[in-house]
Structures are given as structure tokens and as C-alpha cells.
Amino acid sequence: MKLHELAGRPGARKARKRIGRGIGSGTGKTGGRGGKGQTARSGVRIKGFEGGQMPLHRRLPKRGFKNTPFARKLNEVNLGRLQQAIDAGKLDPAAKIDAAALVKAGILRRAKDGVRLLGGGELKAKVTLSVFGASKSAVAAVEKAGGTVEILAPKAEANEQAA
User: pTM for this one?
Assistant: First the structure.
């Protein structure tokens, strides 16, 4: 086989449809855009426009907010995933396990803002973990296996409201 003999599979390449090229083409005159008006024009079609009636997205009340500038992007890791890595020899249970160790072991792709430990799966090894946050079930499971969990997240302060 030579380079000039290479070709796509039959039907893999489709010819571009040339619209607006006369009545005989089948896509002449309006070019597949229907009649006149706003929808036939370029770049001005209004999504959610209801003919002057107040649109649904404006009739409904605004609710809630997103804390995007301050929200922390955390990696979630289950205990079962840690046990798999320990069994495969990628993680050393004797050493302290933190975000950097998890990235090096290939459990996480990147560290983001930290790691949140979740209680899915079963942990048999005694490990020392240093994570941003952990669920109660995860902490209980690690301590049951004889390990410890160090939580790096700052403690939430109890807000006292003045009467």
C-alpha cells in the first residue's frame, strides 16, 4: 500500500451542501431558512422569546446563589480506592498519605484545592492520612483499621447572633 492509495471508508466523507445556488439545487431562494423575519436573519434569533408574552425564565423567581469565586474544588477519594492502590503497591501504607502522594500513585490526576476522603469501600491497612476534609464514616473506618486522619480544613466557627 502506498500513500496515494490511502482513502477514507465509503461514505466517511460527505460533500458540503451549497445552499442558495438557484431553484434547481433544491436549497435556493430562502436557503433552508423558511420565510422572512427575525429567524431568517443572521445572528439575531432570540432564544426563549414568546411573542411578547413575559418569557418563562423571567416569570419564575430568582433563587439561591453560587459561591463560585470562593468555592473549593476538591478531589473525592473513596477508601476502597486507597486500598486498591495499597494492594497494587502504588501507595506505601507506612508513609503519610497526602494529595502529593495520591497524585504520584496515579489515584488523582492533579491536586486541585485538596482531597476529601469518603467512606465508600473497605480499608484494611493501617494508614496515616493528611486530607482537607473527610466524612464521619471515612474517619471511623480509618480509625477502626488502626490509622489516623489529619484534617487540614479550618474549623467552622459558631456564629453568635446578637439579640
Answer: 0.58
